[in-house]
Amino acid sequence: MAAPTRYAEVLLPLPVSGTFTYAVPTELESAVKEGVRVVVQFGRKKIYAALVKSISDRPPSGYEAKSLLAVLDEKPLVHERQFRFWEWIAAYYLCQEGEVMNAALPSAFKLESESKITLDVTADAGKFLLGEKEELLVESLLHRKAIRISEVAGILDQRKTLPVISSLIEKGIIRMEEELPLKYHPKKETFIRLTEPYQQDESLFRELFDRLEKKSPKQLELLMSFLVLSGAGTGSVKEVTRNDLLKSVHAAPAALEGLIRKEILETVTRTVSRIGEETAREDVSSIRLEPFQEEAFETLHRGMDQKGVVLLHGVTSSGKTELYIKLIKETLDQGKQVLYLLPEIALTTQIINRLKKYFGGRVGVYHSRFNENERVEIWNRVGAPAAEKRYDVILGARSAVFLPFYDLGLVIVDEEHDSSFKQYDPAPRYNGRDAALYLAHLHGARSVLGSATPSLESYYLAMEGKYALSVMSERYGKLELPEVEVVNIREEARWKKMRSHFSSVLVSQLDEALKAEEQAILFQNRRGFSLRLECDTCNWMPVCKNCDVTLVYHKQMNHLRCHYCGYTTKVPDTCPSCGNRTLRMKGFGTEKVEEDLSLIFPKARIARMDLDTTRSRYSYRRILDDFEQRKIDILVGTQMVTKGLDFDNVSTVGILNADNMLSFPDFRSAERSFQLMAQVSGRSGRKKKRGRVIIQTYNPRHPVLADVVNHDYVSMYRQQLADRLRFRYPPFFRLIRIELKHRDSRLLGEAARDFALRMKKIFANRVLGPEYPMVSRIKNEFIQQVLIKIERTYSVSHAKESLMKEIAEFHRQKEYSPVRLVMDVDPV
């Protein structure tokens, strides 16, 4: 009797619902395990690498299952706890598990077949009258066995290639095939070592040296260098990389090949890591906590024991990182792993150095600036058994929550208030902070949320007793909090004291800092040179052809750019509307600040840190290293300069335009403004003396500015909490925002009205909209929004279930099927 067929439920990295059932061929049964990747055919021709989620004897109902084609992994890539984590993210953030899989796995693990064309060897092309382009493609295939579809456009020198390809397929001259290219390639390196006789008998060298000295002096020089590099004579001879050996004496490869032919040296090829290794330089016991830190540390422990999650509210420069390091050491001593999340890649440079100082090669880093091969290696080392060379501490941005932790003991979310933890596009639109807390819950791990300016939601949960609270209100080393001065730039302009965009107070303070050889940071939350061009005569402004926004002028590139879709165009000489030649620049960004500062302080060394100057992989590190080594006097930047950076010599911070933040039409604008200004203020006066902060504004009496001046987070919290309760916003209400998108504004309007009515039948007055957002068209798609506010006493899971049912009904209406719906749970 034949053994029953086994079936695998597989997950595909696609925005499709559920899993798919495939039959397991008998020859693959021993290799198919939960969590390994398998090759499957999906649809008529496409081939994908899918993940096995479960295995059973149950065949699918209603259709015959296709068979798995191959197994890609010897060991599971994803474990059961990760699948549970993915299920929670998909359910909570209203997306598909396949979308979570797509976000979670490094791109090298996600394989999708690529179509290619080949000549049909049985076809007779001579009997057909071929067009010019068809002949060109056939001629190319005579010289190459296969051509990828993506290459055809370049060969034919035209964008539309499908008619040519289809015509040749119909004539039977070419065939279409699918190829599944592997993306990850281990790094191989050639090592040089002594052959066995020379390893065992050092006396052989005497005769060898004499012979080489007479006949092959270059070989002798290379051999001597090898012996030095390999540590010969020290009791343990190491292998030396081929490149290091040749570089050591600038030798030609021929000399090395000669020593190999004489069987003195031999080569061996090994797989090596792309990630550099470091060793710990200091012991954690060398960290001495001040009394207020000791008290906070004890509170942290009690809070983690009682609640599991602790909010560490410590003012800037209070020494939160020292507490984190102590907690990490305790966790590692228990044999468990640590996840340390940061909102920005820019912050990792300084924190990496501090963690590696104490934990060396046990620290791994994971973020978007690593290439796909490096990400695979980090993934594998996080998921390695404890006995192997695994990463026990992972420092990363939000995507690090998806790494294959086996035994997570501690989760730290530093700067937990930061909106960068939120993923905007594509799905899943998750919050890294909240996802990390659920991940900790799955592992039974402890969690710490740290910030000098906590999010209102986190502070509210701490006040309600859901989280424990630990407070540090002193700065390390008895440093005073900076002195904050608010400057009325309306008055400054009135009395003609402004120099470009700088008040007399700020210019004077910068001058004083430069004379004292101190450093300064200037914060302007807009990049570019000028925020817009405007015609003096008719007020025409250049707008993006794809989005409903004005274009920003970038002087360095001398073009206008859209910060939403990336569209660029040259600067017009005259107004296209009226022909006037007077086009004035309005507003200013970091590029303009940098240029104007160089005119006021020509001897100062000025640098800029924004998205435009940090596009390359190591640009963050280069700018921050230069600033730390005092090669830069004034650093101008966007939000990147506000977060967690620690520099000894910064005495002055300038906030150039507080009104941009305070007047932003969003219910979080006051909270965010306080956080940004308080955070950037904390960069001043770190070690030597009290720092000074200058805030420029047209509205000096704004209540948030008073709270920044007084360093009074609680005052801001209480005022904002009252407003949130009154207007039904978080933390008292949960938000779900649904965006509807389509290129036809009329169809979109009809669909949005219909959808909003459906929502109001379920949620009544909890629904707002439909409304156009501030930017109502992006990349040629019009956008309307519907916002649902759900009180915390209302069942969120029931609300989401009802919402998804109604969305399914909405999509069944044929006229609205082209309208795209984007769900965003807990938008920030």
Structural overview:
- By secondary structure, this protein is of the alpha/beta class.
- The protein has 26 helices and 34 strands.
- It has a seven-stranded parallel β-sheet, with helices on both faces. It has a six-stranded parallel β-sheet with strand order 19-29-28-20-27-26, with helices on both faces. A five-stranded antiparallel β-sheet has the order 2-1-4-3-5.
- α14 (372-382) links the parallel β14 and β15 (393-396).
- α7 crosses α8 (217-230) and α8 crosses α10.
- The longest helix has 19 residues, at 745-763.
- The mean pLDDT is 87.
Concise synopsis of the structure shown:
The protein is α/β, with parallel strands linked by helices.
Provide key terms for this protein.
7-stranded parallel β-sheet, 828 residues, 21% strand, alpha/beta, 6-stranded parallel β-sheet
Topology readout:
Layout: E1 6-11, E2 20-24, E3 37-41, E4 47-56, E5 70-71, H1 80-92, H2 97-104, E6 114-119, H3 132-143, E7 147-148, H4 149-156, H5 162-170, E8 174-179, E9 187-194, H6 196-200, H7 204-215, H8 217-230, E10 240-241, H9 242-248, H10 253-261, E11 265-272, H11 291-306, E12 309-314, H12 320-333, E13 337-341, H13 345-359, E14 363-366, H14 372-382, E15 393-396, E16 408-414, H15 432-443, E17 446-451, H16 456-463, E18 468-472, E19 483-488, H17 489-494, H18 504-515, E20 519-523, E21 532-535, E22 552-554, E23 559-561, E24 568-569, E25 583-586, H19 590-600, E26 606-609, H20 619-628, E27 634-637, E28 650-655, H21 658-662, H22 669-681, E29 692-697, H23 703-709, H24 713-727, E30 733-742, H25 745-763, E31 767-771, E32 777-778, E33 781-791, H26 796-812, E34 820-825
Parallel strand pairs: 12-17, 12-18, 13-15, 13-16, 14-15, 16-17, 19-29, 20-27, 20-28, 26-27, 28-29
Antiparallel strand pairs: 1-2, 1-4, 3-4, 3-5, 6-7, 6-8, 9-10, 9-11, 21-25, 22-23, 23-24, 30-33, 30-34, 31-33, 32-33
Helix pairs in contact: 1-2, 1-15, 7-8, 8-10, 22-23, 25-26
